[in-house]
Amino acid sequence: MKPQRTAVLVKPDGLQRGLIGEIISRFERKGLKLVGMKMLNMSDEMLSDWYAEHKEKSFFNDLKAFMETMPIVAMVWEGIDAVKVVRKLVGTTLGREAEGGSIRGDFGMSQQYNLIHASATEDDAEREIAIVFNSNELFSYHSVIDSVIYADYEVK
Ligand code: CMP
To answer: Please, are residues 81 and 94 in contact by the beta-carbon 8 Å criterion?
Structure first.
């Protein structure tokens, strides 16, 4: 099975709440591998591309304005089925209904202020990663714990 890469943003509310370390820690403990990370102000153009699917929605401009209020932390996580795994750890959109044990379920109450974004599909992941990262900002490396995260047959 080939590892996938998926994009994560810690949104302005996650930054303000001091949840960056907690969020990174949850993905690390799960066994995902961090292969890219940066802090940046997302431009209006980047956000229009990022949220293209929400272009016609009533909250589109408010969402972009909120994301522009301060820097966000963008990450790329790698692992087998990483898109699905990260979405599960993040939880459903509405914080107050998200499953306990998930990031939104444990720390969020809101729909807009839902702390974190995670790619929904492999195609979204590829598109989103390219919006924020150049290829030389993404890393491939051997981790000493790889051999206890997956059995040999899973990584062949
Ligand atoms: P996410 O799923 O990461 O990407 C789209 C974001 O739009 C979503 O998180 C919420 O932050 C935001 N969002 C979704 N629905 C609404 C809504 N009804 N009003 C305001 N923001 C929303």
So the answer is: no
